[in-house]
Amino acid sequence: MKLAFRTLLVAGTTAAVLALAGCAKDAAPASTFVLLDGSRTTTQELKGKVTLVNFWATSCTTCVAEMPQIVSTYDKFKSRGYETLAVAMSYDPPNYVVNFAETRKLPFKVAIDNTGAVAQAWGEVKLTPTTYIVNKKGEIVKRYVGAPDFAELHQLIEKLLAEA
User: In what residue span(s) does the Thioredoxin domain sit (predicted)?
Assistant: First the structure.
């Protein structure tokens, strides 16, 4: 992901601001996701689908609150070549993640980033939720930090699904 630094004068002090530049065409990082059932999937295997990659934690109240909307988004678009991959952060106890996925009956792939390597590869993700939308070519087209505007997200998914 290309990052640009800008310096701003804020109340008489200088602050460096990190801004995403050119995010629309950056390739999703090559990653291997270890799923709850022990199987693996890779970024390469997601090509050809529009994919939502959501970094989350069971201890994150915003993550828990947005999960029903992530499920309904998945249900709405899954038959049209849309995939969701929920990636639990390395600090999230695996038994909490398994319990959450089972009790909420999450219908999509759930991975645990045991080592933190996946979060690192995807732009040093530290804040949850952080959600990426990846197009069929495997390019990141949008990043949300915090809960997305789901109406806007659905419009973006529609547009990306319509692309060849």
Answer: 22-162
